[in-house]
Amino acid sequence: MLNWLFKIIFKASGWKLVNTPKNLNKGLFAVAPHARTADFLIGLGTRAAMGINISYLGKAELFRPPFGWIFRGLGGTPVYRSKSTNFVQQVAATFNAHEKLLVAIAPEGTRKNVSKLKTGFYYMAHAANVPIIMSGFDYPRKSIIFAEPFMPTGNFEADMKQYFIPFFKSIHGFQKDWIKNYEMGKF
């Protein structure tokens, strides 16, 4: 929709991309830390600067009137949280129904400080057999840093220790100690 504008703002504000993934048809971008509303705008700038179509998942409340049309127009899909809905399987089925699909999601599930990660992002990627691309907002360096895509094994804790924690330990988010709880094994 307004990619040209987001790209200009992203570049003008000094942000840059590091290790941008290439030639991905499918994948789930795990974007963290998600601590501020501004992260959403930086994410839109990142997507525009990458020049690829990445949709995102957001809480359903964002998609209600009067502003819901804006979030949909920016590529968002609402997440309806209910005990009767298996959202992981819905996302996996959506991935399986498309030849190309890239989706971004915040593993914390909120902008608030959390004591543990949500696991849905991981199990969505595992069920859909798509790679996870960890993406970090490094504020001091004004860089969006991408890890190499990895295929989840189904062992959440082991994969978090092998891939997630080492990568995000090097990312300095807006809140500097955001990953310390995860280092202590609180998944």
Main sheet: strands, sense, barrel: 7 strands, mixed
Q: What's the number of structural domains? A: 1
Number of strands: 7
Q: How far is the N terminus from the C terminus?
A: 36 Å
Number of helices: 7
The outline comes out as: globular
* Structural class by helix and strand composition: alpha/beta
Mean pLDDT: 84
Instruction: Compute the CA-based radius of gyration.
Output: 16 Å
Strand content: 15-25%
Read across the widest sheet, the strand sequence of neighbours is 1-7-6-2-5-3-4
Helix content: 25-40%
Task: Report on this structure.
With about 190 residues, the chain is an alpha/beta fold. The mean pLDDT is about 85. A seven-stranded mixed beta sheet has the order 1-7-6-2-5-3-4, with helices on both faces. The chain has helices at about 5-10, 40-50, 70-75, 85-95, 120-130, 155-170, 180-185, and strands at about 15-20, 25-30, 55-60, 75-80, 100-105, 130-140, 145. The chain is built from seven helices and seven strands. The chain has one domain (about 5-170). Strand 6 and strand 7 (about 145) form a beta hairpin. Helices cover about 35% and strands about 20% of the residues. InterPro entries: Plipid/glycerol_acylTrfase (IPR002123).
Keywords:
single chain, 187 residues, alpha/beta, 7-stranded mixed sheet, acyltransferase, Plipid/glycerol_acylTrfase, Phospholipid/glycerol acyltransferase
